[in-house]
Amino acid sequence: MGKQTDADRGGPGGADGGAATPRPWRERTTWVPAVAVLVLALCWGRDLPGVLVAVVGLCLAGAVLSAVHHAEVVAHRVGEPFGSLVLAVAVTVIEVGLIVMLMASGGDSAATYARDTVFAAVMITCNGIVGASLLVATLRGRRVAVFNAEGSGGALATVTTLATTTLVLPTFTTGSRGPEFTGAQLAFAAVASLCLYGLFVTVQTVRHRDYFLPVARTGEPLDAVAHAVPPTRAATWWSLGLLAVALVAVVGLAKVVSPTIESGVETAGLPTAVVGVVIALMVLLPETLAAVRAARGERVQTSLNLAYGSAIASIGLTVPVIALASLWLSGPLVLGLGPVHLVLLALTAVVSALTVVPGRATLLQSGVHLVLFAAFVFLSFSP
Predict the structure, then answer these.
(1) What is the DSSP code string of 162-191?
(2) Cβ–Cβ under 8 Å, residues 64 and 284
(3) Which of the four pLDDT bands, split at 50, 70 and 90, describes residue 239?
(4) Which of 327, 321, 337, 250 is nearest to 289 (CA)?
(5) Which residue has the higher pLDDT, 169 or 17?
(6) pLDDT digits (tens, 9 = 90+) for 110-134
(7) 86 within 8 A of 75, measured Cβ to Cβ
(8) Is 177 exposed, middle or buried (0-12, 13-18, 19+ CB in 10 A)?
């Protein structure tokens, strides 16, 4: 048997009735989020010199690692696919708040912040996270990654529909100038996105939960063969609270360093869309690390749940909130993608379908997704 983690023993301090005395405040994953929030409070709204930017970067990295730890504790208690849903929704809710704050601050690029960030999230999750997870899974142990085609296929179909409805159609509609929705079209897209997100969550957690459970190579759900003792209820609530604190620190510190990123992008003469890409990369680090760690444990379905679930939440929650915020935010709201991004999105949809339909993937599929992700990043810096 492998070495047990704190989560396997019932969280920090051991399971119920154990001899060890719980001292969760001594854990690094407890005080690092607290320090990160303190740094956030001290640095919020200030121009930071280079040294303090480096300190903020270290706190950001520590908050990301802490968020992954506490998400895994919660996931182990509630099981899949609820655990993946907790992290995806928590990060996306705070990400939406970050987008609204950036748009409210105004500026020439504010009109495209929502589009750039949401599209970056879709490409990062569907290509970056999926590719990295398949790479890790196929390089370890046996050389084939196994997952549930029904659940992954349904999630991918949801991502594709949401992305097409909100990011592709505005480019071709004629109701308003430019790649924008009219008020009625934006309201329809918001309601449709919210309804489709709610339907997906219902199917994932209630009606067809077994489609989203990790599977062993024999086809048996891993939940049925898992023997690790889940954390206690107290440890779970403790981790859930610290997860929220860590995620607030992650997104808040990302906002703190965003002026440095913006000035660096402007100085280097790069497109403004690079800001959205870099911020999305930082915000999605918890999901990325959690997905890769799940893939290392041959729980590829958990990795796909995190990837596609984050993409669905990013669109399904962001568009309705932005639609409401547009009632009081000044300036246009550009959602339609340009030609290069339309091609990347279409290619991602086709390649992803070919990956998930068989329910098995090899090193080749991981390489294809990672090349698509690299192409997206490169073309963001050099359009």
Answers:
(1) HHIIIIIHHHH--SSSSS---HHHHHHHHH
(2) no
(3) confident
(4) 250
(5) 169
(6) 778 788 889 999 999 999 999 999 9
(7) yes
(8) exposed
Structure-token pair, residue 375? 């192409």
Q: Where are the alpha helices (DSSP H) in 79-208?
A: 82-104, 113-123, 130-139, 149-163, 169-172, 183-202
Residue 266 phi/psi, 5-degree rounding, is -65, -40
pLDDT at 61: 80
Residue 376 lies in a domain: yes
pLDDT at 222: 55
Q: Which residue range is the domain that position 216 belongs to?
A: 85-224+258-381
Q: For 69-111, what is each residue's pLDDT tens digit?
A: 787 788 777 766 676 677 677 777 767 777 776 676 656 567 7
Q: Can you tell me the mean pLDDT for 42-68?
A: 80
Q: What is the dihedral sign for C-alpha 148, 294, 121, 367? A: negative
Contact of 116 with 102, CB cutoff 8 Å? no
In a domain? residue 99: yes
Q: Which two tokens stand for residue 59?
A: 């706190």
Task: Find out whether 363 and 141 touch, Cβ atoms under 8 Å.
Answer: no
Please state, in angstroms and as integers, the Cα–Cα distance from residue 71 to each residue in 44, 83, 89, 205, 252, following that order: 26, 7, 11, 17, 18
At 221, list the tokens: 């759900």
pLDDT at 225 over 60: no
**What is the tally of structural domains in the chain?**
1
Lookup: tokens for 260: 């440095």
356 assigned to some structural domain: yes
Pairwise CA distance, residues 122 & 124, whole Å: 6
Considering only 211-220, 263-272, 336-345, 361-370, which range has the smallest mean pLDDT?
211-220
Longest dimension (CA), the chain: 69
